What we know:
Blueprint: H1 8-27, H2 36-40, E1 45-54, E2 60-71, E3 77-83, H3 89-105, E4 112-117, H4 126-140, E5 149-152, H5 159-173, H6 193-211, E6 220-224, H7 228-239, E7 243-249, E8 252-255, H8 262-274, H9 282-285, E9 290-293, E10 304-307, H10 316-324, E11 329-331, H11 340-348, E12 352-354, H12 356-359, H13 362-376, H14 382-403, H15 413-432
Parallel strand pairs: 3-4, 3-5, 6-7, 6-10, 10-11, 11-12
Antiparallel strand pairs: 1-2, 2-4, 7-8, 8-9
Helix pairs in contact: 1-3, 1-15, 3-15, 4-5, 6-7, 6-13, 6-14, 7-8, 10-11, 13-14, 14-15
The protein binds NADPH dihydro-nicotinamide-adenine-dinucleotide phosphate.
Residues 153-156, 197, 225-230, 249-251, 308-310, 313, 333-335, 360, 363 line the site of NADPH dihydro-nicotinamide-adenine-dinucleotide phosphate.
Amino acid sequence: KQRNGHEPEFLQAVQEVAETVIPYIIQHDIYHGKNILLRMVEPERLISFRVSWVDDNGEIQVNRGYRVQMNSAIGPYKGGLRFHPTVNASILKFLAFEQVFKNSLTTLPMGGGKGGSDFDPKGKSDNEVMRFCHAFMTELFRHIGHNTDVPAGDIGVGAREIGFMFGMYKKLKNSFTGVLTGKGQSWGGSLIRPEATGYGAVYFAQNMLQRKGDSFEGKTVVISGSGNVAQYAAEKSLELGAKVVTLSDSAGYIYDKEGIDTEKLKFVMDLKNNRRGRIKEYLDTYPNAEYFEGERPWSVKCDIALPCATQNELDGDEAKQLIKNGCMCVAEGANMPSTAEAIHEFQNAKILFAPGKASNAGGVATSGLEMSQNALRMSWSRKEVDEKLKDIMEDIHDSCVEYGKNDDGSIDYVKGANIAGFVKVADAMLAQGII
Length: 435
Ligand code: NDP
């Protein structure tokens, strides 16, 4: 706390892990006296650098770039890049810390990292985004590599940005390697990678419901966000027979009581991915829906809630409201969208709650599959990748059940995810000695 007191998001993420992992360490002799958690909370390396680029008016702009290389005990650093004005060391350290546990849970050999910049892609032209991405990579390239650190996308970084960064990396290194994931189909990308985080979150929720003899069929689903994760969480929910009634962006949310069906979702995907519009424009085409400026969707009655926008977007009062309205299952598509108070509300009410490090691990797992395909110089079919994704989500679910059992037989998925993720990394660190 002393060393990181000025980093509230990072402390929040560490606190959540410490609450469940410290009792486990105390019960297991092999982890005693090794200061293992103390070592895990210190990044192996944190790189911060200047990114200068020229905007469309010929003016020089300066942003700050970062890469946090958190832990490489079980494999090369792996984790996304976020471009958003709120990006700072605290946010990236929390994301990188969570990533270590998440990647361990996937069962694939990936360490944890995260990076990005305070650059805001909103309102920038394609050329400006390209110049920024190129400038960003002229420094990042010396710190990454397909056996060292393999970044991917996150908020503000999609296929367009990955393409620009990959192009510059390839030029600087004169080498075509799978150094980034989330690449386009024709140049090393994996099928299902764009869908993987959203699909994976729904598969995880489906596993939790199945354990209770329930399913998505006929359920009302509230989703926040309208970006990559939200779009595909909505698509899979629809496929499984649920009704999706909300989507949002940072300006507000839309509520469509008739349901956002496949055709309407296609409209949202075009609006957000191609026209880069705002979610309130949904009403121009579907005027029966309602728009709530500056609000979040958690007061809408639902059976299942999927927070898929950003950290701390669901607080204790909103959690109470969801529970009061009969919500029975919350699966996080975003990273740390629920505050600590919200998680305690869900747990006290004994509703199904999946923390992001377990339920949104499908994205990085499929990135891992993209790395395997690149290494093998092969491309698996959509069906093959989707099957592997489903199996991985089921395995993660089962690990959470194994390590998260409460005395009364219920499952604490937070405890389960933290301990299952911890054990593999801690064992590798112990085997490798004090480095
Ligand atoms: P996108 O950039 O595609 O979409 C982000 C969405 O969240 C947009 O609708 C955006 O609205 C909204 N949003 C962003 N910041 C805020 C904010 N401060 N308040 C309210 N809404 C906000 O990102 P992704 O869908 O890729 O990522 C969403 C979440 O999922 C993040 O937490 C990310 O870390 C997590 N995640 C993503 C993975 C992936 O594979 N992409 C993997 C695992 C986790 P607006 O357009 O107005 O900014």
